[in-house]
Specification:
By secondary structure, the protein is mainly alpha-helical. It has one domain (70-286): Heme oxygenase-like (Heme Oxygenase, Chain A). The protein has helices at 50-66, 79-93, 96-109, 113-126, 129-139, 144-150, 154-167, 174-186, 191-200, 209-213, 220-233, 236-261, 265-276, 283-286, and strands spanning 6-12, 15-20, 25-28. Strands 1-2-3 form a three-stranded antiparallel sheet, covered by helices on one side. The longest helix has 26 residues, at 236-261. The chain is globular, with a radius of gyration of 21 Å. It binds fe (ii) ion (2 copies).
Length: 300
């Protein structure tokens, strides 16, 4: 009988994620145990399996978001918030193919053609996604290029910089963890989330191209499945780095998204108008609701 695979990764000083191939996942605090009685005190060295790898990766995302769980902003969706999200979508996707190709060429230099091939394939798949966000912005009457050139949502700067930095490292395996984090969270979006956004948009306007392709309806589910299979095939040291970076990216993502979501609708409108330099075309629809409540729904 073959033994079921157990994988583990220390992600913070005192928390390790442990995952079994059967799907069990738990967080482990090594304190108080002597190394010789704690089987998880030293890094794992064995082969991975899809069932345990997904437990580590998703455990890392859950842990990253757990820190802000209590203060997580959950505003009602607004059109202004959606436009800011589209600008963010543009910035998180515009450099992705270039960055992934840069990391791929480094893995070719390192004699790891299988990692390079995986990253090149990802780069091909992600090409043009920034254009989807621009098309959605234009569909909403926004001057897409001008808006994204003048506006980089503050909460996303650290996240985007992280990806840039990861892809130029001497050993850029962490970029896989970053990509997993973003794609896994996108793949959670369901048809009901898309319907909510459609309801915010003016009649006859289709501004959900990016959202659809980065949801359970689009290619993200396949990307996530392929990444899990690929990560499970990597040596233990690489899997450890990927899971650690998934956690670091989840932390940055949770903080960054929360920063944006905590803004009032009036603040978002102000930022958008400053970037565009003129009254917004859908000004009437975007007008903040009375009292400038956070996340208040615009009358569209
Ligand atoms: Fe994408
Ligand atoms: Fe993707």
């Amino acid at each position: 009988m073959t033994r079921s695979v157990t994988e583990w990764v220390n992600v913070t000083g005192d928390i390790s994620i442990i995952a079994r191939e059967s799907g069990e996942v738990w967080f482990h605090t090594p304190s108080g145990l002597k190394d010789n009685v704690d089987p998880f005190a030293t890094p794992m060295t064995g082969a991975g399996a899809a069932g345990s790898t997904i437990g580590l990766l998703d455990g890392a995302i859950n842990l990253g978001f757990a820190g802000i769980e209590k203060c997580l902003a959950r505003p009602e969706p607004t059109l202004a918030g959606y436009i800011v999200a589209l600008v963010g979508a543009y910035h998180t996707s515009v450099d992705t193919p270039r960055n992934l190709r840069r990391a791929a060429s480094r893995f070719n230099e390192l004699g790891r053609p299988e990692v390079a091939a995986y990253l090149e394939e990802r780069a091909r798949e992600e090409t043009g996604h920034d254009r989807l966000a621009l098309k959605d912005l234009r569909a909403l009457g926004m001057p897409g290029e001008r808006l994204v050139a003048n506006f980089f949502p503050e909460g996303l700067k650290a996240l985007c910089k992280r990806f840039d930095d990861l892809c130029i490292q001497d050993y850029p395996i962490g970029c896989i963890g970053y990509s997993y984090c973003l794609e896994r969270i996108a793949a959670l979006k369901q048809v009901t989330d898309i319907e909510k956004v459609k309801a915010l948009c003016p009649d006859g306007v289709d501004a959900t191209r990016f959202l659809r392709s980065h949801s359970a309806l689009g290619s993200e589910v396949t990307h996530v499945e392929e990444t899990i299979a690929f990560v499970a095939s990597l040596p233990a040291n690489d899997r450890i780095r990927v899971v650690q970076e998934t956690y670091e990216s989840a932390l940055l993502m949770a903080e960054g998204y929360n920063h944006e979501l905590l803004k009032s609708e009036a603040e978002m409108l102000e930022e958008l108008q400053q970037a565009v330099g003129e009254a917004l075309l859908y000004r009437r629809d975007l007008r903040p609701s009375s009292g400038e409540k956070r996340g208040a729904q615009p009358a569209v």
